[in-house]
Amino acid sequence: MAQEKDGSLSEVRARVGASHGITDLAHKLHFYDRWARDYDQDVATLQYRAPRFAVDCLTQALPGPPHATLILDVACGTGLVAAELQARGFLQLHGVDGSPGMLERARARGLYQHLSLCTLGQEPLPSPEGGLVCLTTRTNPSNLRYKEELEATLDRLEQAREWERLVAWPVDRWELATSKLEVVPGTSDSDGFISGIVYLYRKQEVAKVEGVRPSAQPPAGL
Q1: Residue 5: which pLDDT band, with cuts at 50, 70 and 90?
Q2: Which residue among 99, 120, 143, 205 is least packed, with the fewest CB closer than 10 Å?
Q3: DSSP class of residue 22?
Q4: Taking Cα atoms as reference points, which of 215, 201, 212, 206 lies closest to residue 73?
């Protein structure tokens, strides 16, 4: 495990680790509501890199100008991905999240044109204009059940011809593990970081976004 640099890291690991152990959806969303105020600081302590990975994925899948492309940020949280997107020229941003507390923080950033209280798999997603859909999740042991459930939902959307998968890119060094049990021995996670994955889809209600290319290969450096 990475050496602790200050007294807060152990506290953050305990708090984030507790969130990983919640399986009931209502309880998890309530946890996120209470966590929203400290979320950005906590994930920064864990060197959380998912927002950068997500936008790396988008910029490489969409080589043209980004400003005209609508992005639906699923499970947008406090809007960390939106901040990275805007910095790289993506200006049409919609977000959804199941936590009102998280959405309040995302709204305060002033980066999204539209935000909705919505949980993927529980109700239809908004944004009828179509566009690209970006979502991420961890691939460490404690999250494998959720990842399987998420991918089953994504598969159903594909089978219904509502979404088309463009990218599913696994990445290393997602964030610091919350405990040794989160680390998979003999893998790239053994340096104290866990891994994750970025999904990118195109909603099928609109015409193809020119220049977007499906890819089975991860971008360089991820």
Answers
A1: very low
A2: 205
A3: -
A4: 201
